[in-house]
Design a protein that fits this description.
Sulfite Reductase Hemoprotein, domain 1; alpha/beta; TIM Barrel; five-stranded mixed sheet; 13 helices; 357 residues; eight-stranded parallel β-barrel
Length: 357
């Protein structure tokens, strides 16, 4: 089996989290609460942390949000990244509030003078920076090129600002090049990875709802990660950001590059041989796995003939008909049960395995 190799990148440390230099790919997300509401923001950060998020970004659109950052840093269970747009003074305030990292889009700050003021603030309070490049904040001189060759325009913007910071002897930065187009995101990040060795944050911007956004992100991020590109990822989804963590974990798990894979639910696609409620049982079991952070492979199969064999790599599972359901571990049948009791009996066996570990 081929083992994926990662591209060599510079090490950047965000709080106690290491990004790049062959460290495990870091999963991050962003709160959608008002940063000025400390209680709700901390609650959402804690929920993200419980699901496996490692870094969290918070929006800083105003002075009230910036003033809350010091308290947020003190109470947060995750390193805090301050997300700044348009106003470089907010970035400076965030740095002074001792956040663990700032994220700026140089293209929407307006001038190199403002960038230089941020760099001066970082000399007194050294923390890393993320440089964000996307179509919404592309410099005016690249707009014409963007309409003809969008990936090239995105790459040139990332190259311009990377060169600028490196020439200023500032090396402690991560680059993200995002587009709502999967193909443009892939091409631009390939180009950047070929020319630079800064850590890369991967994402598809404005990817969509949980259903469509998960697909777009899985394709775009999956291809780049398979090629060894990417040191940290976010799956951008509308709604509850906790959903992003599950999808990100599954992407990493599918490529076998996550050192601590989440549990996996295997379920057959169902056909006319399926005689009991596989889809709903599978959905409920998967929900319990997420809620309780169960790190097992569990199978819910509809065919009593092929089920145990097809799911033999599962730690535990069920397969059956309307008359009986087989409970099996590692492909070996250990019990026969009534279909009405199948879900309950399966979960009992899951708990038994967990206790024995």
């Amino acid at each position: 089996m081929k083992k994926l190799t990662r591209n060599k990148t510079r090490l950047v440390e965000v709080g106690n989290v290491k990004i790049g230099n062959y460290n495990p790919v870091v999963i991050q997300s962003m709160t959608n609460t008002l940063t000025s509401d400390l209680y709700k923001t901390i609650a959402q950060i804690n929920a993200l942390a419980r699901r496996g998020c490692q870094l969290v970004r918070v929006a800083v659109p105003d002075d009230l949000s910036a003033a809350n950052l010091a308290s947020l840093v003190q109470q947060s269970s995750l390193p805090i990244i301050a997300d700044i747009h348009f106003n470089h003074l907010l970035a400076i305030k965030a740095i002074e509030q001792k956040v663990h990292k700032i994220r700026i889009n140089p293209g929407n700050l307006g001038s190199t003078y403002k960038i230089n003021e941020i760099l001066n603030a970082l000399k007194d309070n050294p923390i890393p920076m993320r440089i964000g490049i996307n179509s919404g904040s592309l410099e005016s001189e690249l707009q014409t090129l963007y309409h003809q060759h969008p990936a090239q325009a995105l790459f040139l913007s990332a190259a311009k600002w990377s060169d600028y910071f490196l020439e200023k002897d500032f090396h402690d930065f991560v680059v993200s090049i995002k587009s709502s187009s999967v193909l443009n995101t892939i091409e631009a990040n390939r180009k950047y990875s070929h020319h630079y060795h800064q850590p890369i944050h991967l994402g598809i911007t404005e990817s969509g709802t949980v259903q469509s956004g998960s697909i777009f992100s899985s394709v775009g991020l999956g291809i780049l990660l398979y090629e060894g590109i990417g040191d940290t990822i976010r799956v951008s989804l509308s709604g509850d950001p906790v959903n992003e963590i599950y999808v990100a974990q599954k992407i990493l798990h599918s490529l076998e590059i996550n050192p601590n894979p989440p549990g996996r639910l295997i379920a057959c696609p169902t056909c006319s041989r399926c005689e009991y409620d596989v889809p709903n049982i599978a959905a409920r079991i998967e929900r319990k796995m997420l809620e309780q952070n169960v790190n097992l492979t569990i199978a819910v199969m509809g065919c009593i003939v092929n089920g145990p064999g097809e799911a033999k790599e599962a730690d535990v599972g069920i397969a059956g008909s309307k008359h009986k359901v087989l409970l099996f571990e590692k492909g070996k049948v250990i019990d026969q049960i009534n279909p009405d009791q199948a879900e309950e009996r399966l979960w009992e066996q899951v708990q038994k395995i967990i206790k024995s570990q």
